[in-house]
Amino acid sequence: xxxxxxxxSTEACSVALLDDDQGELEIIETTEAAARQHTRRLLPLVxxxxxxxxxxxxxxxAIAFGRGPGSFTGLRICLGAVQGLAFGADLPVVPVSTLAxxxxxxxxxxHHAPMIISTLDARMDEIYWAVYSAQEQGVELVDIExxxxxxxxxxxxxxxxxxxxxxxxxFHYGDRIGATSELKTWHADILPSAxxxxxxxxxxxxxxxxxxxxxxxxTYLRDEVAWQQ
Length: 229
Hints:
By secondary structure, the protein is α/β, with parallel strands linked by helices. The chain has helices spanning 38-53, 72-89, 98-108, 194-206; strands at residues 2-7, 12-19, 26-33, 62-68, 93-97, 115-121, 127-133, 140-148, 164-168, 185-187. Helix 1 (38-53) crosses helix 2 (72-89) and helix 3 packs across helix 4.
């Protein structure tokens, strides 16, 4: 399998290529800090990555992307690029939660814990968050993804905080989150990566969780934001 993954949900612009055709899983990734430059940088990064790997778009089996939540503009840019690439090469698309990718990125970085709280600053005095369990085949969502006030983080969850890791920019509201001091650690500087999206997308692809390019949608978690194809 060859799978291309893209993410623009945060200030980073990240692309990765997963290849396990030779029996060994290999993932190469390129990430740039590209705040407000996603439109200019995303496709050149894709072209460069594929050229360096000697892989043509037609050789891919699927394209994955960070579906959100995250930056509204970044999500639109990423999905527009994915739809264009997937339509042109007649490829299926694998949407992956950016909160899940954030949790998986933490695992990849060696921050192991039974449970991982994944958070993103949603602006407007709110945070996106979800709880994930660490599994051998990739993180698994516990309950649902949420958009709440910082004070409502972990509402409805009962966790052993002493063995729980939190990640992401929700830490910006740490002084308003009562559980912060009880957590094992909080790694605020970790961003979702295309490598993590590729890993989770591989699992979903093998389970048949794909869609056509025109059916792929971003996840905003804010009802008033609408996507127009």
